[in-house]
Amino acid sequence: MNNLITREDTNLVAKLARTIGASPKLATEASLAQAQAETNVRVGAAVSAGGMTIENLTAGFADFTAVSNISLEIIPNKITAIIGPSGSGKSTFLRCLDRLHEEVRGAWAGGRVLLCGEDIYAAGVDPVQIRRRVGMVFQKPNPFPTMSIYDNVAAGLRLNHFRRVPQLDEKVEQALRQAALWDEVKDKLQQSGAALSGGQQQRLCIARCLAVEPEVILMDEPASALDPIATLKIEELMRELAREYTIVIVTHNMQQAGRVSDFTAFLMMDEDRAGRLVEYGHTKQIFTNPKDKRTEDYITGRFG
Amino acid sequence: MCGARMNDQEQQPRREARVEPVSTARGLGQGRDHHWGEFLVENAIRVLGFSAIGFVVLIFLFLLQEGLPTFFRVELPILFGQRWYPTFDLYGTMPLILGSVLVTIVAIAIALPLGVATAVFVREVAPNWAREILKPMIETLAGIPSVVLGFFGMTIVAPLVRDVLGAPTGLTAFTGALLLAYMSLPTIISVAEDALDAVPKSYRDAGLAMGATRWQTIWRVVVPAARSGIITAIMLGMGRAIGETMAVMMVTGNAARMPVTADSLFRPVRTMTATIAAEMGEVARGSTHYHVLFGVGIILFVLTFMINLAAASVIFQKRRRGGLR
Lengths: 304, 325
Prior knowledge:
The structure holds two protein chains of two kinds.
Chain A: H1 2-19, H2 24-37, E1 52-61, E2 64-74, E3 79-83, H3 90-96, E4 107-115, E5 118-119, H4 127-133, E6 134-137, H5 149-158, H6 168-178, H7 182-185, H8 198-211, E7 216-220, H9 228-241, E8 246-250, H10 254-260, E9 263-269, E10 275-282, H11 283-288, H12 293-299
Parallel strand pairs in A: 3-8, 3-9, 6-7, 7-8
Antiparallel strand pairs in A: 1-2, 1-4, 4-5, 9-10
Chain B: H1 2-19, H2 21-34, H3 36-67, H4 70-73, H5 76-79, E1 84-85, E2 90-91, H6 94-125, H7 128-141, H8 146-165, H9 173-197, H10 201-209, H11 214-225, H12 227-243, H13 246-251, H14 272-279, H15 288-320
Antiparallel strand pairs in B: 1-2
């Protein structure tokens, strides 16, 4: 009963913040204290701005089920890591969170995914709007090859404008600063993004994602194509971004999950090859004191 | 078992070679004796391959031999003059060059948006089953003989142009351009479609994830990324259009007038190809007229070569930049 009230309260705050056009921070701060106060993952926190609740999510392609019946809560302003062996449906799960999954031919998804308490799979919800609120960074850096660095960041902002975008320069600079790339590229904004190094390209992609001011950032193995130093930079950046954004990261690298994430979800495929959630909790607990035998085996490197 | 034995046999000479160089020579010699059939086939293929190049070179030399005298026999101001009256020794090729250029450019201007739009539709929008029907159909279009299209143009398109546009005759540059556009469409569509297909999925994902609609993603991300392939498609379409003879000769009216007035598009025009095809049968071999026709052939060749070169350089640039992956 107590829970229920909390949930509605935070929901209200979030909605209020959205309608008066304030930055999501307002709502976030209100719920932040609550989220931090909670020592365990609990219903309620995920309803506030940037929080997501996944209920019985099942998704796949044609007659193949990639993830089955996953329920978990993404806590706002925290980094949630999704780990698991190859083929356990981590990426599919992540792509369901911004409705990118359905863009693949034959893809389907069922269950509910709530973003700030609203079901993004409800009838009448425009996936394009969802994707502006939930940004995504991919495994391989994919800056648009024909655009300059500036245009790459501005691309998202220009989508809704037929003419000049107000304060475009400032917004591009801000996004590049947030992505810790500004100092490296400020003198060559008109150069092609493809000329940057891999790590810079990935930060450019993060800047492109930040420019549209999403609430949640999904990262699909963002550092797996990068060298250790670039990886470290991306990880620092993620810690930095977690102050303002909710981050969900899929990673193969367990050290990375341990280093950067606050919460960890362990996915594993069953005999039917569909990925299922095995365990979800604080990263520290998952890595030091896993409740499930399979989690322990995976963490200690016995398989996967 | 068998494979293992063969390995042994192969390795034996190598082991010997390390000890005694003399036996290496014997081993290799034996190998060649044993594979003289291989040697024969290899060389036969080499000869056939080079002969193909040789024929092309011979044709080119013949073209030069018959065409180059033009530039000595006819003064250049006349050769690039505005009047083509071979009977009066006036061999001004300008109307023919401009005629070809006008028809080709208008044809591409019509075919380009249609072709790219169709390619985008086939690759990005159409459901699987529609694509499976459309692709072979488009490729079949390329196989229609140009004389059939010319006939179709004469009996259907030309009267339409005359009646709808109010031109004095239906046999106009525009009619020719319409037919050429139709003929270059299959090339443009299939090459552009391949280019779109080669755009990595990650760019589409990036566009969609940024909050672009499907259409915005296609238009702002996928099509620009396939730019070089689409330019190649245009160049290939142009090459097909500028070299086309039969359909053009049937529907453009073949009047060698300078297409420089505003209404030229809706007046008869004469292209280089049509001129050569129409007049070559009637000239005396070795006459000035005969050589001029070959000269026109050289000009046409140079134009086509330049277009192909432009297309090739675009492809080359793309490769040098590391491609689009």
